[in-house]
Amino acid sequence: MSFLPKDITQSKAGKVADVIDHLVDALGGEPSCTLRRAVILADIDEHPGTTQTDIMERTGAHKSALNRDIEWLYDYGCVMRQQDPEDARAIRLYICGYAKKNLDHALETFDFSHKNLKNYLISFINLFGSHKPTLRDAKIISTLGDQGTLSKQEIFDELYNGSATTQNRAINHMVDLGFLKKRENDEV
Amino acid sequence: MKFELDKNFAEQFMSLSLDSAGQEPLRLDNHEVIQLENAQKPIHPVLKSQFTPK
After folding, report:
1. What angle in degrees, to the nearest 10, is found between the helix axes of A35-46 and A114-127?
2. d(Cα B29, Cα A64) in Å, to the nearest integer?
3. Nearest to residue A147, comparing CAs of A48, A17, A7?
4. Can you tell me whether residue B21 is helix, strand or coil?
5. What is the pTM of this model?
6. Residue A30 in 3-state DSSP?
7. What is the pLDDT of residues B10-54, one digit of tens each?
8. Which positions ≥6 away from A93 have C-beta within 8 Å?
9. What is the arrangement of strands in the sheet containing A150-151, beginning at the earlier edge strand?
10. Which of A 20-79 lie inside 8 A of B, CB atoms?
11. Residue B29 contacts A where some CB pair is shorter than 8 Å
12. What is the pLDDT of residue B33?
């Protein structure tokens, strides 16, 4: 497997913005997907043939939430399920092709360490407190972390295909939560 | 009108490390404990309000 050399001049926030792009591609091109689903996808990739119980034990995810997350990953074609031939009750989980390819691109920034990627994402999630961040939220934060101050249109330009209403709501919600600040005196 | 990260939030975001060598794997669904026990800096005011009984 070969990748282009890393851009060593890129800022850490810029690298994170690129990682989020790869995660969106890995997660069905859906920027509304939560960051925690990226953690679960990375865990499944690290442990091919894992079961839901194993994921719960390793990640500490609650059963009901994990059920929904795995169902989502399956519906979006990110993972496949196979019945264990030796234990009919056990369903084994595997990451699918395009999700694997794009997750590998994300892992490049973390020296191909699943633990590094998962720990980073969980720490990032924890910054948001009780708000469950989406990949879109993470992209907004990392873009502003990289580029400093931007107009709403400039932020939109960095985001993914989605309605202006959805993108606007994401920005306004993060302003309401206090993560972003408006600078009223700047011209657009 | 322009937007920027809140200063405290930006500091916490930029302090996240891409390399967690020597660190235990973190766990999902227990963010309150991690935030309160491992916080090196004062908790972000918004987060703090979420952890303070109303």
Report:
1. 160
2. 12
3. A17
4. coil
5. 0.85
6. coil
7. 999 999 999 988 888 999 876 544 444 444 444 555 555 555 554
8. A44, A49, A50, A51, A52, A55, A70, A79, A80, A81
9. A150-151, B2-5, A180-183
10. 36, 39, 58-62, 65
11. yes
12. 42
- Say yes or no for a CB contact (<8 Å) between B21 and A116: yes
Segment A98-105 long-range contacts (CB within 8 Å, at least 24 positions apart): A98/A25, A98/A26, A99/A26, A99/A27, A99/A28, A99/A41, A99/A45, A100/A26, A100/A45, A101/A26, A102/A22, A102/A23, A102/A25, A102/A26, A103/A22, A103/A23, A103/A26, A103/A41, A103/A42, A103/A45, A104/A1, A105/A3, A105/A22, A105/A25
Which chain A residues touch B3 with a CB distance below 8 Å?
Answer: 144, 149-152, 155, 171, 175, 180-183
Task: Tell me the per-residue pLDDT of A22-68, one tens digit each, with 9 for 90 and over.
Answer: 999 999 999 999 999 999 999 999 999 999 999 999 999 999 999 99
* CA dihedral sign of residues A172, A174, A175, A180: negative
The CA dihedral of B32, B42, B47, B54, to the nearest 10 degrees, is 90
At A173, list the tokens: 């919600």
Is the Cβ of B11 closer than 8 Å to some Cβ of chain A?
no
